[in-house]
């Protein structure tokens, strides 16, 4: 029912939530005492949030709903009130600034590219190169190559690989990759997936979905990720606050686990954005920094895809939760979902 962060089928979403509560979690619909924290995507409008709250109260019959926007939840997981959240999803990539615990909605952007586009672009590049047997040219194979960790866009900084192996990968020479017992030699085309975020002019055409026409990167997103990130930061706060945002980047979402993604982002930011800034003073950022979860969240270590969930857990257990957008059954019955 949800595609690209937008609800496409509300009855299906209501049916899914009813199945989740009443059949999967075995909640008694006649006496539902399960309080819900609703983590809303940035693409949801206030009307859509109200509709979701309405479904939870009327179709699922929950006693209360705590509504939190996802970027704010992610920063709660970091014990931060100010930062920039880059949510790398399967279909979209959202960039949102949060300043003093308030989401800056009017500057947030959502790019219509994500992990699926990375896989499709890589598959198109491998098909064009002609080095992969036709029976292996599937999205599953492309995803296995992309997530393997052996083909990072900037692998020279990866000490886990032997020095000669790092030099071989960096040179663009063909390297072996084993998939389901079959060895395939892959050349520079294995790096094509990163063009989705950093090279809007790259010559990569691919199918955006089943039976869909060919699209180019520029058709889906004509501006590179670093430039969009700079736009969000520059329009969200005054110049004297921008350094704080540049040093408080948080990568989350399933695709944030992509090996080498942050290093690629850091290099492009330093070379294409910060190095060419018109001003050079104490208010101009000289470096960027991505933050991770606190060490005591051991179960979430290395799992940026769970940032929103961790933030929701932290907020729900917070003594200040009732001071947020909290809707009780009594309030809903009196005033509705707004």
The general outline is: globular
**How many separate domains make up the residues?**
3
CATH first level of the largest domain: Alpha Beta
**Count of DSSP strands:** 14
Portion of residues in beta strands equals 15-25%
Instruction: Extract low-pLDDT stretches.
Output: 155-169
Structural class: alpha+beta
* Number of separate helices: 13
Largest sheet: 5 strands, mixed
CATH superfamily of the largest domain: ATPase, nucleotide binding domain
What percentage of residues falls in helices of 4 or more residues? Answer: 25-40%
> SSE order, as H and E?
EEHEHEHEEEEHHHEEHEEHHHEHHEH
Give the overall pLDDT as a whole number: 83
Tell me what the structure shows:
- With 338 residues, the protein is of the alpha+beta class.
- It has three domains: 2-74 and 303-335, Nucleotidyltransferase, domain 5 (2-Layer Sandwich); 80-112 and 221-291, ATPase, nucleotide binding domain (Nucleotidyltransferase, domain 5); 115-220, no CATH class.
- Helix content is 37%, strand content 17%.
- The strands form five sheets. Strands 5, 6, 7, 8 and 13 form a five-stranded mixed β-sheet that branches. The protein has a three-stranded mixed β-sheet with strand order 3-4-14, sandwiched between helices.
- InterPro entries: Actin (IPR004000), ATPase_NBD (IPR043129).
- It comes from Caulochytrium protostelioides.
- Belongs to the actin family.
């Amino acid at each position: 029912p949800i595609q690209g962060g937008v609800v496409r089928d509300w009855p299906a979403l209501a049916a899914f939530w009813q199945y989740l509560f009443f059949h999967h979690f075995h909640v008694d619909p006649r006496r539902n005492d399960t309080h819900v924290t609703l983590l809303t995507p940035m693409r949801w409008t206030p009307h859509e949030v109200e509709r979701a709250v309405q479904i939870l109260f009327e179709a699922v019959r929950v006693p209360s709903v705590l509504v939190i926007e996802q970027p704010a939840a992610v920063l709660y997981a970091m014990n931060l009130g100010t930062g920039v959240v880059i949510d790398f999803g399967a279909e979209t990539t959202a960039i949102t600034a949060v300043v003093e615990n308030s989401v800056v909605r009017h500057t947030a952007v959502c790019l219509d590219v994500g992990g699926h586009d990375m896989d499709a672009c890589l598959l198109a590049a491998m098909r064009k190169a002609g080095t992969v047997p036709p029976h292996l040219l599937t999205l599953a194979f492309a995803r296995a190559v992309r997530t393997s960790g052996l083909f990072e866009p900037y692998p020279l900084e990866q000490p886990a690989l032997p020095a000669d192996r790092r030099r071989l990968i960096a040179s663009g020479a063909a390297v072996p990759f084993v998939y389901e017992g079959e060895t395939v030699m892959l050349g520079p085309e294995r790096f094509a997936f990163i063009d989705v975020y950093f090279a809007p002019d790259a010559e990569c055409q691919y199918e955006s979905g089943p039976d869909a026409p060919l699209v180019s990167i520029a058709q889906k997103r004509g501006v590179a990720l670093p430039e969009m990130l700079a736009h969000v930061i520059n329009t969200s706060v005054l110049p004297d606050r921008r350094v704080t945002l540049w040093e408080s980047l948080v990568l989350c979402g399933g695709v944030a686990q992509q090996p080498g993604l942050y290093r690629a982002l850091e290099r492009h930011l330093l070379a294409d954005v910060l190095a060419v800034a018109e001003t050079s003073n104490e208010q101009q950022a000289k470096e960027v920094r991505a933050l991770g979860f606190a060490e005591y969240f051991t179960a979430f270590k290395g799992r940026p895809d769970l940032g929103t969930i961790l933030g929701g857990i932290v907020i729900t257990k917070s003594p200040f939760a009732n001071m947020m957008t909290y809707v009780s059954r009594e309030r809903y019955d009196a005033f509705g979902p707004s």
